[in-house]
Design goal:
Length: 138
């Protein structure tokens, strides 16, 4: 399973670096930066990536639903089997996708697992309230 992080500017590249800091080199993890200086057009980057691993399954993880990166990928993979799109990328989601066995699953099983992973990643979003001792000086 190939996992492609795609975002506006450098978010995908930064997230890939963070994942590899935690997990080590991930040969099936790729980052596509769109609309950043000196980058090839998004569609060309996507076509190049798909050509490299033509017969593999793909999970695309994008930064924001309705954004141009997400909609471009959705249009490009709409008719292709074995390609899945998740939006709202965050570190817990990417780590979960990379550590979940998806290769030997049917398309329906992959969709179900991705849905569950998204639910679990959402649970990582929390407001952290810190209690400050009013007598302490910082």
């Amino acid at each position: 399973m190939q996992v492609i992080l795609a975002s506006h500017s450098q978010m995908a590249k930064g997230l890939k670096k963070t994942v590899e800091l935690i997990m080590g080199k991930q040969p099936n993890l790729h980052a596509i930066e769109a609309y950043d200086d000196n980058q090839e057009p998004l569609k060309k980057q996507l076509k190049d990536q798909l050509t490299k691993n033509d017969h593999e399954k793909y999970v695309f993880i994008t930064d924001i639903i309705g954004g141009s990166v997400n909609t471009t990928i959705a249009q490009m993979i709409a008719e292709r089997d074995e390609m899945f799109l998740v939006t709202g990328m965050n570190l817990p989601l990417v780590l979960a996708v990379l550590t979940t066995e998806l290769d030997n699953c049917s398309s329906q099983q992959i969709l179900s697992k991705l849905d569950q992973l998204c639910k679990e990643a959402r649970q990582e979003l929390k407001v952290v309230q810190l209690l400050v001792n009013e007598t302490e000086d910082f």
